[in-house]
């Protein structure tokens, strides 16, 4: 079975979390999607790069989520979400591209 890149999981969690919240009208459901993807990504970050890297990437994931809110006021919701998701994917890829 093919493995999904952890960078895609992290970016997908940000995009999917927003999409679920927007399309259902229920923000808590979006939070569940965001948290589930974050948990999967966190497990993989730790396995591939160790605990310190996983903690740093987890903090970046939360920061990306938080940063999307004020950014959305300037550029719009979807552009903000895609921007922070892209940044998170890049950070994840940069840290985990070489397994321990």
UniProtKB/TrEMBL annotation:
Which keywords fit this entry according to its UniProt record?
A: Membrane, Transmembrane, Transmembrane helix
What domain of life does the native source organism fall in? Answer: Bacteria
**Regions that span the bilayer:** 53-71, 77-96
Is the Transmembrane helix keyword given for this protein? yes
Record protein name field = Integral membrane protein
The organism encoding this protein is Streptomyces changanensis
